[in-house]
Amino acid sequence: MTEVDTEGYLIDPSAWDEDFAQQAALAEGISLTDDHWRVIRFMRQWLDEHQVAPDARHVMKHLTQATGAGRNRLFELFPYGYVQQACKIAGMKRPRAWSTG
């Protein structure tokens, strides 16, 4: 069993796997598509390289380069917000205070 905090965020981001993402997405009412996975995998790679979750603006830039749609697409994919849904599903710790772009 993967340990999460009271809001459903992973306590240890290194415990993340795709099964966790699927379960977290289901809990958020999201059916993961290729674009969701594009965002999630980018976030995981960023975390591996920088040891911190990416700010939403980096994810928007990545989406724009990959699909031609950035900010609006990010919020279509995660309608309750980057921190609330994308960070949780991608296995990031809950950010304390953060601009969502």
Shape: globular
CATH fold type: Arc Repressor Mutant, subunit A
What CATH architecture do you see? Orthogonal Bundle
> pLDDT below 50 for ≥5 consecutive residues: which ranges?
none
The CATH homologous superfamily name equals: DsrC protein, C-terminal domain
Mean pLDDT, rounded to whole units?
91
Structural class: mainly alpha
SSE sequence, one letter per element: HHHHH
CATH class call: Mainly Alpha
End-to-end separation: 33 Å
Helix content: 40-55%
Taking the sheet with the most strands, its summary is: none
- Individual helix count: 5
Gyration radius (Cα, Å) is: 12 Å
Beta-strand residue fraction: under 5%
Can you walk me through this structure?
The chain has helices at 18-27, 34-50, 56-67, 71-77, 82-89. It is globular and about 35 Å long. The mean pLDDT is 91. The chain contains 5 helices and no strands. The protein has one domain: DsrC protein, C-terminal domain (Arc Repressor Mutant, subunit A), CATH 1.10.10.370. Helix 2 (34-50) packs across helix 3 (56-67). The chain is 53% helix and 0% strand. By secondary structure, the chain is mainly alpha-helical. It starts with 17 loop residues before the first helix and ends in a 12-residue tail after the last helix. Belongs to the DsrC/TusE family. Its EC number is 2.8.1.-. One of its GO terms (molecular function) is transferase activity. Keywords: Cytoplasm, Transferase. Its main location: cytoplasm.
